[in-house]
Design brief:
Length: 161
């Protein structure tokens, strides 16, 4: 295999491993380990927020996870690696279930994320951005996507130059 292809395959496998680790940690009882997968200057762009959220602020926001299990289906829709950057489109669909009281009704949880990753100076990959939204329901978001795709050419995939 050519050295460039070997390097690209190695990078792809490293990014894929980090993404799978994130998905495992999210479902684990150690959600706090999730933040070890982010760069110290990582930024979250959360729904309904007009400001970027730092790593420390995100840790505070996700404090609710000590009360819930993530019981969600995950779909990795796209994973692209290009030199020192990568991005992943991932969707979660399921429920948050109480860790403390099994009789509490589960909370519906649907989210769609774009994770942007960057190769760090030590050659490891970390997540630098988490951009996400919470569609109202799967059916409703499908309708919105189909409608906007009919009115705009902006949704067509573009090749990197």
């Amino acid at each position: 295999m050519a050295p460039v292809l070997s390097s690209l395959e190695s990078d792809y496998e490293a990014v894929k491993a980090l993404v799978f680790k994130a998905l495992i940690v999210i479902r684990s009882d150690r959600f706090e380990d999730y933040f070890d997968l982010f760069a110290v200057d990582a930024i979250w762009m959360m729904p309904s927020s007009n400001k970027d959220v730092s790593l420390e602020e995100a840790k505070g926001f996700y404090g609710f996870t000590r009360n819930f299990w993530f019981d969600q289906q995950t779909n990795i829709e796209e994973l692209v690696v290009s030199e020192d950057m990568a991005f992943v489109r991932v969707s979660f669909d399921g429920y948050l279930r109480s860790k403390k009281n099994a009789s509490v009704a589960p909370l519906r949880s649907v989210s769609r994320h774009i994770w942007i990753l960057r190769r760090q100076p030590d050659n490891n990959w970390l997540i630098t951005r988490d951009i996400w939204n919470n569609p109202k329901s799967a059916g409703q978001s499908d309708t919105v996507i189909k409608t906007s795709a009919q009115r705009s050419f902006a949704n067509k995939p573009q090749r990197a130059k």
